[in-house]
Amino acid sequence: MSKPITSSLGETIPLVPPIYQSSVYTIPDLDALDAIMNDGELGFIYARDAHPNAKRLAALLAKDEAAQWGIITGSGMAAISAILLATMQQGQRILASNRLYGRTVQLFDKELPRFGVTADFVDCNELGAVEAALKKKPRLLFVETMSNPLLRVVDIAALAKMAHDHGTLLVVDNTFATPVLTKPMELGADFVMESLTKMIAGHSDVTLGFVGANDTEVLPAITATSSIWGLSSNPFDCWLAERGLATLELRMRAACANAAKLADWLAEQSCVARVWYPGRDDHPDHELASRILCRPSPLRGSGVGDEETLFGNMLCFELSGGREAVNRFLHTAPGIPFSPSLGHSTTTLSHPATTSHRYVSPAERKRQDITDGLIRLSVGVESLERIQEEMTKGM
Ligand SMILES: Cc1ncc(COP(=O)(O)O)c(C=O)c1O
């Protein structure tokens, strides 16, 4: 952790960390420069390489994710890119879940082949199919703890064991779960990554990502990759994300409680054809979710409400009237803003078919049950009554 600047403040240090809004640092002499270059703990030189706000945030998140180390990147996609660029070579393969965020699919399917890396996609809820696909010895297996958008949950511990048996590293995108619901590193993942843009920063005013891992040998490669490919973060975003992180657990607990009740309420509405929420026993992965998502894992031991079961703040529901019904809902219930992201403090919605999965082929969307009537809700912490009152207008 960087040494606090005390020279102009006597013995006092600010309770709230300063924003080090500087792209470069001043270095006393060449010996100091050498010392910093040889030991990153001694100071900072250039913000694209490292800066105090990212360093603080990375240390906090690594602790929350039960990882030995962490780095902050300029976005969630930059976090995925940093892992790929630091670990993969031309001629290698990546095996990925066939239910992922649309841009991640594009990265694997369209971008990686340009660099000589082949991507295969597999249903990670079918462990036999994963076992068969691992025979090709992919370098990485990539999954989302809870998939975007239909919240399919994967068995991280089982996948980690299978991957390791084949010499493959497991990378888990934990964005929809957050470390409040599950900590993939404790279940055997080799890398965990998060889009901090979502629940962790929590106020829709930040674009950032995080990579965490235990293997200290890859840390220099990931740090260098992040700087060389320009994947780094900016200080103000890190400062905001640190502030968001302080309330993550409280927000998640409140939002998860709202989501659970809202899912049941939506299932009773006549215009709703189907609800997808892992906390409901009609979700295909309810049993698995109950095992891996509900473990009480309070951040930094706050212990608040350990007995609650948490299935996440995300849910999907399908309006019977398809695209037209969705448009009608958007016009009649504007208090639930159509904002194609997630993790805001209040409830927002998205339409996966035209946003996150827009560039996925219609056939693939059909396979994944991403229909034109499907709405994805990111449930917030406002009162449940207020959410229901607004949603009723759109029903
Ligand atoms: C599951 C998941 N992973 C990664 C990302 C990418 O994160 P970012 O937008 O911060 O690059 C997203 C964005 O929506 C996402 O939903």
Structure description:
The chain is an alpha/beta fold and 395 residues long. It folds into two domains: 30-245, Aspartate Aminotransferase, domain 2 (3-Layer(aba) Sandwich); 248-394, Aspartate Aminotransferase, domain 1. Helices cover 36% and strands 14% of the residues. The chain contains 14 helices and eleven strands. It has helices at 30-38, 52-64, 76-87, 102-111, 127-134, 156-165, 178-181, 219-228, 235-245, 248-267, 286-292, 322-332, 362-367, 384-394, and strands at residues 69-73, 93-97, 118-122, 140-144, 169-173, 191-195, 209-213, 272-276, 314-319, 348-350, 374-378. It has a seven-stranded mixed β-sheet with strand order 1-7-6-5-4-2-3, with helices on both faces. It is globular. It starts with 29 loop residues before the first helix and ends with a helix. The structure holds pyridoxal-5'-phosphate.
Radius of gyration computed on alpha carbons: 21 Å
**Unreliable segments of 5+ consecutive residues:** 302-306
**CATH architecture call of the largest domain:** 3-Layer(aba) Sandwich
**What structural category do the secondary elements indicate?**
alpha/beta
Mean pLDDT: 94
Tell me the count of domains. Answer: 2
Shape: globular
**Would you give the CATH topology of the largest domain?**
Aspartate Aminotransferase, domain 2
Note the beta-strand portion. 5-15%
Q: H/E series, N to C?
A: HHEHEHEHEHEHEEHHHEHEHEHEH
Keywords:
about 400 residues; Aspartate Aminotransferase, domain 1; binds pyridoxal-5'-phosphate; 2 domains; about 35% helix; alpha/beta; 4-stranded antiparallel beta sheet; 14 helices; Aspartate Aminotransferase, domain 2; 11 strands; 7-stranded mixed beta sheet
